[in-house]
Amino acid sequence: MAPEMWLWRHPRASGAAGRCIGQTDLPVDPRRAKRLAHRIRRAARLHGLPRVVWSSPLRRCADVGRWLARWGWQHRVDARLLELDFGRWDGQPWTAIAHADVAAWEADFADHAPGGGEALSGLVQRCRQFIVAHADMGGLAACAAPQPLLVVAHAGWIQASVLGSAQGLQASAWPAAPRHGSLTRRSGLQ
After folding, report:
1. Gap between the Cα atoms of 7 and 5, Å rounded
2. Cβ–Cβ < 8 Å for 107, 33
3. Per the confidence metrics, is the pTM higher than 0.85?
């Protein structure tokens, strides 16, 4: 049984505006990280959630987890939670990326690796691997439901996690990006 997931998008990163940001490790204002950590802590108290938070190793997610760790939480880092790797596009202004290159990605949205990085099908596969790895980490009884997963994630990861498969995915069907700091709840594998 797949776990319920509470996914918070990381706070807005400094220097991201107008740039293609995937695995570029940008900082986040410590006050924003702390505010999001407070919201996560409050949600855990209200809903009886575990005091364990997962994040990608990138600062814009991990900084939130580090705040929670200061308050006695377990903070676990997993590279499967990284944002899409945009290869040579990563960190570049969108205006510096050739329109023809973006069009090539849109034409084969699921399997084209933008900037020579990672295809969306690879990101969807990483999401599934993370979720499946946690499906058996539930209660003590063999049939108990797994504990909910609390995750500070990237927009692309959250969007990919709602897809059952990237097969046949069109750019027009890609889910809308959640706002910075917002919560997305989902249960099980689609």
Report:
1. 6
2. no
3. yes
Average of pLDDT values for 42-55?
97
Using DSSP's 3-state secondary structure scheme, residue 121 falls into helix
Q: Where do the domains of the chain lie?
A: 4-187
> What Å distances lie between residue 15 and 59, 78, 145, 176, CA to CA?
13, 24, 41, 22
Which DSSP category does 79 fall into? G
> Model confidence over 4-20: pLDDT tens digits?
999 999 999 999 999 99
Listed in sequence order, the residues at least 6 apart from 75 whose beta carbon sits closer than 8 Å to its beta carbon are: 53, 55, 62, 65, 66, 68, 69
For 20-48, the DSSP string reads --SS----B-HHHHHHHHHHHHHHHHHHT
Which CATH homologous superfamily contains domain 4-187? Answer: Phosphoglycerate mutase-like (3.40.50.1240)
